[in-house]
Design brief:
Helices cover 40% and strands 21% of the residues. The protein is built from ten helices and eleven strands. Strands 3, 4, 5, 6, 9, 10 and 11 form a seven-stranded mixed β-sheet that branches. Strands 1-2 form a two-stranded antiparallel sheet. It has a two-stranded parallel ribbon with strand order 7-8. The two termini are 39 Å apart.
Length: 292
């Protein structure tokens, strides 16, 4: 029994097919099939039933797989430990933060880390919607702070970071603001909705809270969106912490729109599972864990 065989079994269960497992492990499908068959011959029982298109674990296979997952978890932890023992301080640590997330709590964690490791450049990247997960999965960031929308949770480690509140707002002189009560979708379709574009395309592209059939402006970031709203040109959802002062002064007001109510979402610190952390990333991950 080898580690590669256990990894092959795990990949088949997670991906659901031999082809998917081959893609996950960047190996030929025939190699995956050979590893599993050799393991089954050694065990003298079948791990998978192959009577249907998607391989299913046999009863004995389910028991075996539970133990295999435990072994793989410990092995990955050992690999991470070995990597830390061998690693030097990494020159760069890249962190992608969703633009909806308040950054001050992250600064509170980062400052002592930066003081302890002055030789490491911290690169903070503000991304929209699917941007953080796209960077993480394409190895353009070691850590992200974001919602879990689109995150392949079986491929990452995560821990709670905080909560984000999105509230629909507009200028007090914007026509719907002068009418109390709930505004229907049909009513709001004649008014300009301001939305923020995703910072990526492809597999991780996302769109949120877009009113169908409405007039729309698309901007690249929240400061621009807020400027459009303050100019009394439209309405849209904003992270509450970014408009707290404007709401307090009355420069912006909240709107009650059908299907576009105030939303509260959990955000998480996320890293790719099985990747080796350098000492700076490990210290940051431990610090984030201590505050959660």
């Amino acid at each position: 029994m080898t580690l590669d065989q256990l990894l092959a079994v795990d990949a088949i269960v997670v991906a659901g097919t031999f082809r998917g497992a081959a893609d996950r492990l960047n190996k030929a499908q025939s190699a995956i099939s050979h590893q599993v068959k050799k393991l089954e011959d050694e065990l003298q029982f079948d791990l998978f039933s192959r009577s249907s298109y998607r391989p299913q674990l046999t009863p004995k296979g389910e028991v075996f797989y539970r133990e295999a997952v435990r072994i793989l978890h410990h092995m990955r932890g050992l690999q991470t430990t070995v990597g830390l023992l061998k690693a030097e301080q990494e020159p760069i640590l890249r962190i992608s933060v969703s633009a909806t997330v308040p950054v001050q709590p992250l600064f509170d964690v980062l400052k002592p880390i930066s003081d302890a490791f002055p030789g490491t450049d911290i690169r903070l990247i503000s991304d929209m919607m699917g941007g953080p997960v796209s960077r993480l999965m394409s190895n353009e960031a070691e850590l992200i702070i974001a919602r879990l929308d689109g995150v392949p949770v079986d491929e990452v480690e995560l821990q709670p970071f905080g909560r984000v509140t999105i509230v629909p707002v507009c200028h007090p002189d914007f026509p719907p603001a002068k009418i109390t009560g709930m505004h229907s979708v049909a009513e709001m379709q004649s008014y300009l909705q301001v939305v923020v574009a995703d910072s990526v395309g492809g597999d991780f592209e996302q769109s949120r809270d877009i009113m169908p059939g409405a007039r729309r402006w698309t901007v690249s970031d929240f400061p621009t969106k807020k400027a459009v709203l303050l100019a009394c040109m439209g309405w849209g959802g904003m992270p509450k912490h970014l408009v707290k002062e404007e709401l307090a002064r009355g420069d912006l007001v909240t709107l009650d729109v059908e299907g576009f109510h105030t939303q509260k979402s959990e955000v998480f610190a996320v890293r790719k599972r099985g990747t080796i952390m350098g000492p700076v990333q490990a210290a940051l991950w431990d610090a984030l864990s201590s505050r959660s």
